[in-house]
Records
---
Amino acid sequence: MVIGGTGGFTAAMTGHQELLTALQASSAHLRDLVDDLGAGQLTASAYPTEWTVADVLSHLGSGATILHRRLDDVLAGLDTPEDFNQSVWDTWNAMEPVEQASGVIAADQALVERLDSLHPDEAARFRFSIGPMELDLAGFIGLRLSEHTVHTWDVEVALDPAATLLPQAVAPVLDRLGAIIGFTTKPAGAVRDISLRTTSPDRSLILSLTGDSASLQPGSDGAPADVELPAEAFIRLVYGRLDADHTPPAGGPVDLDDLRPFFPGF
């Protein structure tokens, strides 16, 4: 299946330019965070706590390097060597924390600038395969945006426990959750439909658990919701980042503790 403008469940499709604008904002936000980090903060725990802040930056930097190469290879009609990813990870893992911090800014900016430089013909013909999905350019940028937004929060929350996801990225990431929620949810045999209402932006959604899979569909705007919470908090729930210490006020008859086990994070 091709994943691109189809965010997964909304009728309004987000084009690659709008997604790129959100990615540029997230990239600038990450740069501001990294510029303010001291050497001691780089080795402090991030979120999840088994990673340091530098580990998260290394993950984002290596990801940018890999996606940049794959973008260029796809457009050139070339196959990326099978060992390329591992070679990039090895390089970044060998860096000192300060190098990882400076490196992520350079690699991240290079990817964003390359995406911004694409000719309309390149954008139209771009297709990237990952697992069972084939991504068009919107899907490719959306993949990076989701990862970038969540992992930037992993860094920021280590500095500010009240941090939330970057507001400019919330709507496009939310509207693409349907494309990945089947891969990230662990229903553990549960069979139920859960209605959700988000704010900022307002969305009515149905999370369907079917024993061994899950899907996200539009809900009815006027129907009572089982769970009501900010959209950025729902995204963090799906990504396994809505523990009790980082949860804003939520409403509805279904307790978030009942939902957290379905989203172990990744």
Note: Residues 1-12 have pLDDT under 50 and may be disordered.
---
Amino acid sequence: MRNIIIAISTIFLLCSCACQPSPAYWRTDVNCAQLEAKEKGKALLVLITAPDCSACENNWCRIFSRKEFLNEVDKELVPLYLSCPYQNATGVCGAWRDKYDASKSPSLLIVGGDGELIATVPFPYKDTESCLESIRSFLSK
């Protein structure tokens, strides 16, 4: 009986935490990110990468994984990370890449709560501050 109660409690805990956002990290579940953005009245910052992209990896290390970048982004946007190959991209990532014509990697998009494309942040991203400045310029319009 005790094991059943522990199992049910664990399942309940996991289900209740499935879409709980934690500040300053990239979300990877599109539905949860969209729900969070809607609830908070924020747009999504969508980073679309490819697993074999050296520019994606370089920018991830230099900019997108940095705490100062994520802390600043998290104030006004919900960050969403999607990764799929250039060729034959399928699933949600492929659908978003096609929908927003994000054929280049990395692609950094600002997408409104209703799914409209607000902006494509131009590549290349020189450093954390210049990338944040580009994002701010689109948000202030």
Note: The longest strand covers residues 43-49.
---
Amino acid sequence: MPSRLSLLMISLFVMMASGLSVAAQSRPVTVFAAASLKTALDDVVEHYSNRTGKPVQVSYAASSALARQIQYGAPADIFISANTDWMDWLQQDGLLRDETRVDLLSNRLVLIAAPGNDTQLKIALNFDLAGALDQSWLAMALTNAVPAGIYGKAALQSLGVWDDVKDHVAQSDNVRAALIHVATGEASMGIVYATDAGVDPRVRIVDVFPRDSHPEILYPAAVVDDSSNPDAPLFLGFLSNPEARQIFSEYGFDQPGGTP
């Protein structure tokens, strides 16, 4: 028969194990997500947590910055990028669970104007963006690193106007920062995602870039390989269900392939 001390030790072990189990179950899913997702994803997270009682915390930044943080060992459970390149980069390093990767969303690229700027301009081959700027600034995310900036530069190059405006581009760390530059009048125009323009009533959409002027804007997502949170795959699955898709659609996101 076990001694009283043995029974006490067993009870303590069971209590500790139970406590660890509860802690593991209540640990928030940590999501690293592209800055352009913030408003919509915050809404999706709220619906998920209200429905399941499970917490989710999201860190927003440029996809490039988040990918580098994951490479350096930052404790993320899920990564959502605003382009496929940074997701491919992590996947090639074996830092993602390949079988969980999914293309969640797509977006459109738009030219926006600051408050009081009533410029009318149709985006087309060799359109006069330089004339519309009139020596003022064009706000963009970093054109060599951040997806929105990469897409924007590609579009301007394909339309033949990049060389005309490149010296008037004011680059920001992420697309939401570029949006703010235009909304506050620091830049007279800017290139952002359609969903960004939709969250700030101070800016006006001048025109939408043709889909064929830049690579398709995709938001791939995957569970990070080092994640030990059992709720990470559950939340990733929720992002693709009809309820989440409806929320994303209300904020202007499309499904991959351009389907609303």
Note: Strands lie at 29-34, 56-61, 78-80, 102-106, 109-113, 138-141, 169-172, 189-193, 204-208, 218-223.
